[in-house]
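#help-structures
NK: newbie question, is this the right format to request a structure? protein is protein-serine/threonine phosphatase
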Amino acid sequence: MANVVGEGAAGRSTRTLRAEGALGALAADPQAPDRLRRILEQALVFAGAAFAGFYTLGEDGELLCLAESAGVPRTLCGVRDCYSAAGRGPVAEAHRGRAVWLGPKDLAAQSQSRRTPRREFHLAALPVRHDGGGCLLAVSERPGGFDADDRTCLALVADAVAFPAPPVTAESADLPPGGFTLAMDTGRLRVHDDVLDLFGLDPDDFDGRVETLLGLAVPEDLPSLMSVVEADHMTIGDRELEFRVLQPAGSPRWLRLRGRLEHGGEGHPARLVGTVADASSLRADVTDVARVQRLAAALSTAVTVRDVGKAVVAALRRPLRADRIALAELESDRLVVTVLDPPEPEAWPQVWRSEWRTEWPDAPVRTMPTLASALREGRPATWPAGSPLEPALAEVGPGGLAVLPLPAGNRMAGACLVGWDAPHEIGADERTLLTAAANLAGQALTRARAFDAEHELVGMLQRQLLPRRLPRLPGAVAVARYLPSTAGLELGGDWYDVIPLPDNHVALVIGDVQGHSAGAATLMGQMRTALRAYAVEGHPPDVVVSHANRLLVDLETDLFATCAYVDVDMEAGAAWCVRAGHLPPVLRHPDGRTEIAEAEGGPPLGVVRQCDFPMSPLRLQPGTLVALTTDGLVETPDSDIDAGMERFARQVAASDPADLGPVADALLGKALRSDDVALLLMRYDGMDTRPLRESWTVWRVPQAVGHARRFTRRTLRSWGVTEEIDAPLLAVSELVTNALVHTDGKVRLDLTLIGDRLRLAVADASPRSPVRPTSIGWEATGGRGILLVEAVSAAWGTLPVSGGKQVWAEFTVRR
C-alpha cells in the first residue's frame, strides 16, 4: 500500500501536492469564519489566478450571486456580482455542470456588442459540487493562461469549496454587543445600545436612520465613511475603517468599524453587517497623526503635479488656519507655480502679479534671496510677524511665514509657502506637521512630475499617429477629438480618420485596438494606414474592412481591433455602414430626432480570417449629424454599454449641430476618462451644386477613339459647352489611345462637370501609371501623348483604383 501511495504522489507535480496539503489543512477547520476566502486564495497561490470568486444561487433561485472573492477587484477583470442562472455565460454553464475554459479571443468573440476588456484575460469556470450548486470563477492575466497544473489545482479548489453558512442578520438573531446591520437600499439601521452610547445618543432618541449617525462624524472623515455606506461603490467583502465622532466637550473620539457586505440579489448589495468599537486607546496624538495619514493617503493617489498641490492645500489650509499657500516646482533655478490658494491675483503681492501669465505666475526667485537660501539649506524655515523680509515674501505672510523646501532624495523638487495675515505663532505641533508634509509632498511631486512628462509624451506620440487635420469636405463639415486616458501612461489604440474618395464620396472611420501599449499604438497606425489605402483603391466598404481583417490576421499579432466604416455619398445623401465589433453610428436628424443606427455588425478585426462584414444603408438628409465614438466615452466599469449609448444619443439630441466644435467639447467634457476616447462628428449639409456625370465603356474596335470623341462632344453639347472643346477632345484621344494600346481589359471614360471645371478620367485594368518622358527626339514615334495632355490641360494625374488605375485631366470651360 505504501508503494501505491508513493507512485500516485510521484505522478503529480510538487505544486499539486502542496495545494492538496494546504486545502486539507483548511478543511480541518470547517467553522473558521474566513474559511471560504482562504480556500479561494489558494487559487491565487497555486494556479496563478489574479481573481477567484465563488458564485451560488440567490434566494430567488434565478441569479448566481458572488458569495466570496479573493484577488484583484472584480471590476478590473470585467466580472459582475450576479449572472442569470438560465443564461449561456460561463458561470451559468459551470453551474449546470460543465467546465468552461476561455482565452482572450474566445472572450472577444462573445462580446461583439459589448466592450472587450483592455487587458488579455484567460477565464476558467468550474462547477462546485454541493446541494445548491455553484461555480468557481478564476481569471488569469498570464500570457499562456492556465496550464495543466493550474487546471488541476483549480479543480482541487473547486472540490474544497463548501456552501457558506447564511449570514446572521438583524431579522434572524439578536445583535451582538457593538453590532449593527444596515439595509443598503433604504438606509435603515439597527444598532446595539452600546454603539449609540459611543456616539453619545440615547436609544430612545435614535430614529433608525444612518444619516443621524453620519451627522455626528467629523466632516473630514465623512468621505471615507460614505464610501462604506453607499452601495453603489461597493463590492462583496470585508470592510474596516477608523473614523472620529464629535463630542460635547474635548477632542473627537476615535471609533473602529468592522463589517461585511452581503449580497441581496439582482447584482446589488443588500446589507452591511458588522461592529463598532472604541479605538481611542490605540491613539496617542490622534489629531496630528490623522492629518499626516490623510495627507499620505491623498498623495498616494495624486498622479499629476496639480493633484499634489491640491492635496497639500487641503491638508494644511484648514488645520493651520493659513491665509495663503503656494506650491511651486523647481526647474533648474526657476520656480514654476502649480497651485495658489486663493487663486485670485489680488490676494498676492504686487511683484507676483507683475509676473502673472495666463493662469499663475513664475515665482520671482531673483527678488527673494531668503527663499533661495532656504532651498539651499533644505530645511523648513519660519518667520514671525514683522520679520525683515524682502517684499515678495513679507507680503505673502505679514502675520507669519513658513517656507517648506520639498526634498526628493538628494535634490529639491520645489517649495511650499504658507502665510498668515494676522500675527500667528507657529507652535511645535505645527512645525512637526509642516516637516512631515514637506517630506511627503517632495516625493509625491517628483512622481507626479515624471507622470506629467510621460503622459505628455504619450499624448504627443498618440497625436502623431492620428490625422493632423481633417480635410475640407464637399457638402459637409467634420470635427474630431481624441483624449488619452488619465488612468495610466500606456499608449492607447483608439483612432479616427476622414478619407476623401472619388466622385464626392467620403469615408468616416473610427476604431479601437485592444490594449494600452506601444504595440497597440503601432497596430493602430498600421490599421489606419491599411484602411485608407484600401479605401483609396476604390473598393466598396465591405471589401475595405474585409481586406483589413485579413491583413491583421496575417500579421499574427495577439491583438485585435474594432472598427466602424461609413462611406457617404455627398451628392445623393446616402451612406453604407460596416461594423467590425464596434459601436454603431448615432444619427441626429434635422428635426432633432436621434437614433442609434441599426447597422448589422461583424466580428472584430483579427479574430476570424474568413467572415462576412455586411453593409447597412443609411439615409442622410441635409442637416443630419453623424456621430461615431469609441467605448471609452459611453462605458464605465459600473454601467452597461447599451445604457451608455442611450445616454450618448440623448446628449447628441440635446446638442446644437450648427457649430460642431463646442458639441464635441461638450460630449467629451462628460467623459470619465478611465479609457482613451476618440470622437468623430460630421454634419451633412448637402452639395449646393451637384456635378454632371456621364460614363462611356470603350470597346476595343478600330473606331474606338472616334466613338469616344463623339460621345465626349455630344455630352458637352448637352451640358451647354460648345466653345473651347478642342483641348478636351484632344486629351480624350490621347488618353483613350494610351489605354487601348498599352493595357488589356476594360477601358472606361468618365466625364464630370462642376461649374466651369471639366474633368476627364480614363480607367483601365493596368496598375502601371504613365511616365512623363524627360525628352523626345524628332525621330521618336511615340511618347508625346502625356506631354500633349499636360500642355492643353489645367491639371492632370493618376489614381489607383480597384484592379487598375485612372488617368485624369481637368479643363476650364464656359457653358
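mod (FA): yep, format's fine, and the C-alpha cells are attached above. The chain has five domains: 11-161, 179-278, 288-456, 467-684, 692-774+781-812.
NK: thank you!
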